[in-house]
Design goal:
With 499 residues, the protein is mostly helical. It has four domains: 89-243, Rossmann fold (3-Layer(aba) Sandwich), CATH 3.40.50.620; 257-339, Glutamyl-tRNA Synthetase, domain 2 (Orthogonal Bundle), CATH 1.10.1160; 342-386, Helicase, Ruva Protein, domain 3 (Orthogonal Bundle), CATH 1.10.8; 398-493, Orthogonal Bundle (Arc Repressor Mutant, subunit A), CATH 1.10.10.350. 46% of the residues lie in helices and 9% in strands. α1 crosses α11 (305-311).
């Protein structure tokens, strides 16, 4: 293999949804592969059948593709190093596990769950660290083999050296040394014959020629075990990169999937699939998560995916925990929305109108989008800002129809005079309308803001809307005239009431 070309793998477990932490890992994998002309591999670590979540695999693939992170090898696309699902590699792991036993790096363990529970309770009662007590480690290999052949139930444990220490290096954290006595004899193969992550991942990484293992810092606790396994086989070690953790937006405590429900109340989520539904652009999400743990310099903050491929470097990763800043994601998303062409943004918002059952024809939508683009933060805001253009009628709040400082009667009189001006216009262009309406406001002794405020609520049903006069052009003369007449009827009915 060309040692300058990185072979990296994103290896999620199909036990849940694709979240921001996993998406960032996949992004960094992708960037390193593309930058070096290497390969980005999608591998599924599905040996934990108890936690298997139907639909998880499809959501992971959809999320990666939405972000633009296509893989070169792996599930769905194949490759020379398959299969790419661990559940289909059972025999491979068993072969390597037997090799470890034969070379005194692993052993059969016949301890029942009940006995292990008793050992654990004893250790806790004596305030000792919980660990396997090594009972089966002392068994004669021939005796252990005979018990296996007799059909006795067993697991396979790694035989961690009980003396000395192990030293290894992480790209972000440098040299790390751990005393072997503090490393448990972890289970490598369960009683059902399925390998656990510790063995399966290391075997797969070796068999698939993985050069860099980029993963979350939650794996630091078992990092010494993984190095022990790799060295027991005599394999060349990959470069290890353990990324920073994500903190809650407050900066206090690790971000957890359990917080997702509360976040959704504020229109946010840590799940990639939700972000798409909430109206975020993949370009903005990529830009945002890239900077949570990596920086190019102290001033550049906007990066396309191609920019990131060019500029990304493992040397600029930061091991410090990063607080999730959703306001920053909003900022990026608004900026990327404003960079879109009108046809592109129209194509992006059309599905939101369709999903809401709003019949937004494309021709009108192409006129509406320029009016709402500048103020949009998320794509789903197109409904709040743009549905008025596709409604037959609006239902203004009567209180809002009365201008500030004017009674309902005075506001109705302003509306009648405004309607007369509007009915006299030869066309409904905003250039035609603005000057006569401002002159009217001056003649009747009110501010243009008061007059336009009455018009805005009457015509759009809202106190805040896209530019009013441009909106009137799109809504059209018949609807504008009818909405003004309706506002007059409402204001007339309010006369004598306290505002």
């Amino acid at each position: 293999m060309d040692q300058n070309k990185a072979r990296v793998r994103f290896a999620p477990s199909p036990t849940g949804r694709l979240h921001l932490g996993s998406a960032r890992t996949a992004l960094y994998d992708f960037l390193l592969a593309r930058q070096t002309g290497g390969q980005f591999i999608l591998r599924l670590e599905d040996t934990d059948q108890k936690r298997f979540c139907p639909g998880s695999e499809d959501e992971i693939k959809r999320g990666l593709r939405w972000l633009g992170l296509d893989w070169d090898e792996g599930i769905d696309v194949g490759g020379a190093y398959g299969p790419y699902r661990q559940s289909e590699r059972k025999e491979i792991y068993q072969e390597y596990a037997r090799w470890l036993i034969e070379h005194d790096h692993a052993y059969y363990c016949f301890c029942s769950p009940e006995r292990l529970d008793q050992v654990r309770k004893f250790q806790m009662a004596n305030k000792e660290p919980t660990h396997y007590d090594g009972t089966c480690r002392k068994l004669d290999p021939e005796t252990a083999q005979r018990r296996v052949l007799q059909g006795e139930k067993y697991v396979i444990r790694f035989k961690t050296p009980d003396e000395g220490s192990i030293s290894f290096s992480d790209r972000l954290r440098g040299q790390i040394t751990v005393e072997n006595k503090n490393i448990d004899d972890y289970i490598l193969v369960k009683s059902d014959g399925l390998a656990v992550y510790h063995l399966a991942a290391m075997v797969d990484d070796h068999c698939m020629n993985i050069t860099h293992i980029i993963r979350g810092s939650e794996w630091l606790s078992t990092f010494p075990l993984h190095v022990h396994i790799v060295r027991a086989f005599g394999w060349q070690e990959p470069e290890w990169v353990h990324l920073s953790i994500f903190l809650k937006p407050s900066g206090k405590g690790k971000m957890s999937k359990r917080e997702s429900a509360d976040l959704m109340k504020d229109g946010y989520s840590i799940f990639v699939g939700d972000l798409q539904d909430l109206g975020y652009l993949p370009e903005a999400v990529i830009n945002w998560i890239a900077l949570m743990g990596w920086s190019y310099d102290d001033k550049t903050e906007f990066f396309t995916l191609n920019d990131l491929v060019e500029k990304f470097s493992l040397d600029h990763l930061n091991p410090a925990p990063a607080a999730i800043n959703f306001s920053k994601m909003d900022y990026f998303n608004g900026q990327y929305i404003r960079k879109l062409s009108i046809p592109d943004l129209t194509a992006h918002v059309k599905p939101f109108f369709d999903k809401a059952g709003v019949a937004a024809d494309e021709q009108t939508l192409l006129q509406v989008v320029p009016l709402i683009q500048e103020r949009m933060v998320t794509l789903d805001e197109c409904l709040e800002r743009g549905e008025i253009f596709f409604q037959e009628t609006v239902s203004p709040n009567p209180i809002d129809l009365a201008a500030k400082g004017l009674s309902a009667s005075q506001s109705a009189d302003v509306a009648r005079k405004t309607l007369a001006i509007l009915e006299s216009f030869p066309d409904f262009s905003h250039e035609t309308a603005e000057t006569p309406l401002r002159v009217l406001a001056e003649e009747i002794g009110i501010s243009a803001g008061q007059l336009f405020g009455i018009m805005r609520v009457a015509i759009t049903g809202k106190t805040v809307s896209p530019p009013l006069l441009e909106s009137m052009e799109i809504i059209g003369r018949p609807k504008v005239i009818e909405r003004m007449r309706n506002a007059i009827r409402i204001l007339d009915g309010m006369q004598g009431t306290n505002l």
